[in-house]
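During the second year of the project, the team shifted from modelling isolated chains to modelling whole assemblies. The rationale, set out in the original proposal, was that interfaces cannot be judged from single-chain predictions alone. As a representative example for this report, we include one of the complexes processed in the last quarter. Its constituent sequences, exactly as entered into the pipeline, are reproduced here:
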Amino acid sequence: MTENRTPRRFTIPIGPQHPALKEPGAFQFTVDGEVVTNAYVRLGYAHRGIEKAAEERNWIQNLYLIERVCGICSHIHALAYCLAVEQLANVQAPPRAQAIRVLVAELERIHSHFLWMGVAAHEAGFETLFMYTWRDRETVMDLLEGLTGNRVNYSANLLGGVKFDVDAAQADSIRTGLEFLEGRVRHYLDVVSHDATFLQRTRGIGVMTTAQADVMGAVGPTARASNVVRDLRVHAPYAAYPDFPVSIVTDPRGDLEARFSVRLRELFESFRVIREILDRLPAGELAARMPRRIPEGEAVIRLEAPRGDVFYFVKSAGGDQPERLKIRTPTICNLTSVVRLAVGHQLADVPMILAGIDPCFSCNDRMVQVRKQSDGSQELMTWEQLRQHGIEFYRGKAQ
Amino acid sequence: MSLLPGIGAMLIFPGGLSLLTASLLYEWADHKLLALLQNRIGPRWFQPFADSVKLLAKEEIVPKGVDRWLFFGLPLVALAGALTAGLYVPLAGLAPIASFPGDLIVVLYLLSLLTLGLGLAGANSLDRFSLIGATRTLTQVFSYEAPFMMALLGPALAAGSWQIATISAYASGHWLALTQPLGFVVALIGLMGKLEMPPFDAPEAHTEIVAGAMTEYSGRGLALFNLGKAVELFIGLTLISALYLGGVENPLLFLAKTLGLLLALTGVQALLTRLRIDQTVGLWWRYGALLVLVQWLITILVR
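Output from the structure prediction step:
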């Protein structure tokens, strides 16, 4: 009993189950009083074998699967997959389809950033902001539902195009909704940059310098809040972004306040782009014809998800199924920064620093390589071996 | 005082059962008002009662490594302290059940029993969240307790008595919130600190340390602590209304004044972000204590 109470190496576990986490991820924070002296992260609690599952399905079926990589930025994953497959098949989606894809992607960004702000405010103990942002988020959810029929997994993409058109009535309702949301974002920007008690919890907390952001490979708004000028919508424009350019929003401060500021100011760009798309939506078809079998080849696609850089690698062997699909989501790039930045901060700041990168654990869990503790060797199982192992494991359990 | 009415006053009205009922209703009012301010629907009026009944009926799980006596005893002591404090304050605008010179100090100490009980309950556990929560609870006690106590002694200075009944009678003619505004504000904010309401909820910040000192409490103990907090909210509101808001001569005035105070408390809860524990300590010792001392000085000089 006494060993456990020695003041040295007092470790606070956050996760796998903890009220601060909405998804399983395990963090260990060693604290000295209230100050964090060491941090450690362990992932892999929500590994779903999506990449392997994608190899078992055909190109069309995968659309359904890929949409479910992330519950919040579902559209961007389907979009990345479609763009990669289209690139392999050498098919170009019509301009109208590309514009609608960007429209949904930007609406999704609004939805994601509102959700994030609520979560971050909740971690800081500012429940009122949490409740207000989530109420306002309903507006954009309704817009997405009116447009696509779904609130979460919009299912907007087809291989070679999109499933639905935007008519005048929908465009009008989106414009009205955006009007309201823009006013709200302006208000929240005022709150997060002027509310004295909130600033006590964000200003100068979790500062990441530009050099650190580069070294740790931070992506997306987290990196842009540290003055890293990188946005794939600008530097590697895809879909309709060449026709509807956005400008990069950065902040030199690198602290939590900057992350709030960048994400909120980014939304004004989203509003502007959505309005432009609605005003000059290109005429034409909604989808191009796709072959059932995709020619042999490899494609790499990088898109700017609400959280940052999404990376897709698709390899086709010429059949009706992908040979290999590799997904890397932004959270895995940003997690390093949490572990580094938490050290030296108060325990109370840790949930905020964690929420500051907008983590999404289920998306980033990919594969676990088990390293034997005795000799450090790694053992990889083939699919067949894993299946056999599973059968034997449960047979052993049953007896 | 004959025995039977005395026991009745202690156990049924205005102390005891009535006190518990009123406290739970005030807890509901607090939750409901906060919910309305936060654009939520909020609980129905019987929710605190339902919660208490459910928790009281639940199995109490005793974690490994705790002292059983303390584990079961501390919630009882905490609730008993809060209920006993109720005997000395003018509940519902009636005269206090018991009264003696200097009872103000006794009430303040009885009210602290709850926080002390919470801190000890957390420290009694092996759970890491409880230990951090206990440290924070006790740190918070040391920061707000002195300014809060001094703020409630301000009216005592003005009235020239340490007896709640006397001060309350004196305060009926004087709105001390107007003549001692600094003390009033500190007392009100101090009550929030005492009850670990947001923004002073660092000791039970659930995004960091789950439920703080109460993490390991599940059934009866948790219910008793919750009841104790509800009672303390009620008594705190009564005390501040009686001392600062021109007294509470009748139940109607009592209701109006305490509910007005509660509205102010929920407003503050809704407006502010949770303070870190170091910020709480800094706030109390840098501003709270100083404000009260200035208030005392003014009161002594002017009187």
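Chain B has one domain: 10-302. Residues 10-302 of chain B form one domain.
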